[in-house]
Amino acid sequence: MLAVRTQLGISPAYRIPRGASSTTTIQFRPSSTLDHVSAEKPRSFPTEGFPTIEPDQPLEEEQLFDYSPHRYYPAYIGEIFQGRYQVCAKLGWGSCSTTWLARDLRDKKYVALKVYIHNSVFHRELPFYKHIAPFMSSDHPGRECIRRFFDSFIVTGPDGKHIVLVQEPACISLFDFKQNIHENGFPEENVKSILEELLNALDFLHTECKAVHTDVHIGNLLACMDDSQNAKFKGIEETEINDPSARKQVSPDRTIYLSRAILPKEGPLKLSDFGEARIGPGPYDYPAMPMPYRAPEVTLEVPWSYPVDIWCVGLTACDLLGLDMLFRADHTAGNVYEAAHLAELIAVLGPPPTAFLELNPERAAQFWDEEGKWKDLVPIPEIGMLESLEGQLGLPLAFVKFMRRTLTWMPNERATAKELLEDPWLKG
Questions:
Q1: pLDDT tens string 354-401
Q2: In what residue span(s) does the Protein kinase domain sit (predicted)?
Q3: What is the bridge-based pairing of β-strands 149-157 and 97-104?
Q4: How confident is the model at residue 265 (pLDDT cuts 50, 70, 90)?
Q5: Strand pairing partners for 151?
Q6: Average pLDDT score over the chain
Q7: Closest to 135 (Cα-Cα) out of 225, 220, 203, 217
Q8: Which end of the chain is more exposed for a tag (fewer CB within 10 A), N or C?
Q9: What are the catalytic residues?
Q10: 175 pLDDT above the threshold of 60
Q11: In this predicted model, what pLDDT tens digit does every residue of 18-32 receive, in sequence order?
Q12: pLDDT-derived band of residue 16, with 50, 70 and 90 as boundaries?
């Protein structure tokens, strides 16, 4: 059984694999020196006295099916970037980057460093931030729900160059929050508050920035906190010194750390991860979106735009409430993977209207016959129509009506973010 480690002031933390020890001492290279006289001095972090993970236990990014250590920059706690950003703790990891909490020695604040993997194509996030910069002084409430960007630079590792984004520090994604705290979903009133902030963020992106996120889900929604005095993040740094994170030494120059989970009591929601965002309204005519979240027009290879984000709002609402995942898009379906996804859409939404199939008749003919009948490339699963959601977890019919405004075959029939902000269920 895996153990849950509770760290001082940060509860609960992520799981440590069996075999973690608190006695082994590991030495790693010392922190860099500052390039200039700073308002704050760098701190020394422990080189012993922390739990260690057994070499045969995959940890964090090592669990990815395509993990390669040479793609990840081997950052270490205590390291200083650009002569000003000292790494204090590891906050998270993903398929394209790792995220670290750092203290800005010059400006006396805490930031997040998102270090992209070597040769990553996901650094499109940088041009996105440059695009929206002129709009971040707007009085639109949605701008406060966008994760802020401060700086960027290049760092050279043993295997090449990595792009680093300096961003507003955040606490924990709603995916991790749900996995660790709210396994059965968030309370309905909390979900309404989350969706209101998400919709404000999307309305800001769509109407002012003219951008499409394309990757909206609970993993890209960050629970944050008001920490203007740096008290919480300073506590993280102190904890890292007094109770250092578990880690695994994989080579003399590479250490993999256990991420720290930071749980806010209250604070704003931030939409993040803009590596797949599209600048401009489009329409776009190439694949996008993870398959379980993929809007039907993308699967039908029809030009798409802002409505794909609204489609994801409906699916995000289900995730937050702890409802059964509507679309699973089973990868084992092989070459009928897309057909399996469309079959799930039919099960939940009902058959598509003729107008939808006419958006791309040639593509539609791969899945439907001339009369608009499903070709049964894969059987339509028994998932249940959207209306079956009524009564689940005590949810009202108003919620089903909200969902019907987000999950539609025809993209032009989906409500806009601004319209959904006035939805009776959301306002009730």
A1: 999 999 999 999 999 999 999 999 899 888 788 887 777 778 899 999
A2: 85-426
A3: unpaired
A4: low
A5: 166
A6: 86
A7: 203
A8: N
A9: 215
A10: yes
A11: 334 333 333 333 334
A12: very low
Whether 357 contacts 368, CB under 8 Å: yes
Residue that has been written with the tokens 């520090």 in this structure? 169
* Among 274, 211, 261, residue whose Cα is nearest residue 101: 261
Question: Looking at residue 21, what is its pLDDT?
Answer: 37
Does a cis peptide bond (omega within 30 degrees of 0) precede residue 283? Answer: yes
The dihedral sign for the CA sequence 410, 413, 419, 421: negative
Q: Over the Cα atoms of the chain, what is R_g?
A: 23
> Which of 304, 114, 130, 316 lies closest to 209 in space, CA to CA?
130
Extract the tokens encoding 139: 């009085």
Instruction: Please give the backbone phi and psi of residue 11, each rounded to the nearest 5 degrees, phi first.
Output: -140, 135
Q: What is the DSSP letter of 209?
A: I
CA dist 46 and 48 (Å) reads 6
Identify any residues that bridge with 158 across adjacent strands, giving them in sequence order: none
The sign of the dihedral angle between the CA atoms of 132, 137, 142, 148 is positive
Give the single-character DSSP code of 204: I
Pairing of strands 211-212, 278-279: antiparallel
pLDDT (average), residues 347-353: 95
Tokens of 318: 């289900």
Q: Which residues pair with 156 in a beta bridge?
A: 161
pTM to 2 decimal places: 0.85
Sheet holding 221-223, edge to edge: 172-173, 221-223, 269-271
If residue 420 lies in a helix (H) or strand (E), which one and from where to where?
A: helix 417-420
pLDDT tens readout for residues 283-302: 999 888 988 899 999 999 99
The answer for residues whose C-beta is within 8 angstroms of residue 44's C-beta and 6 or more apart is 31, 78
Residues in contact with 292: Cβ distance below 8 Å, sequence separation at least 6, in sequence order: 315, 325, 327, 328, 329, 341
Buried b (16+ CB within 10 A) or exposed e, 218-232: bbbbbbbbebeeeeb
Query: Does residue 214 come out as left (phi exceeding 0), alpha (psi in the -120 to 50 range) or beta?
Result: left
Greater model confidence, 417 or 122: 417
DSSP assignment of 51-106, as one string?
-B--TTS--GGGGSTT--GGGS----TT-EETTTEEEEEEEEE-SSEEEEEEEETT
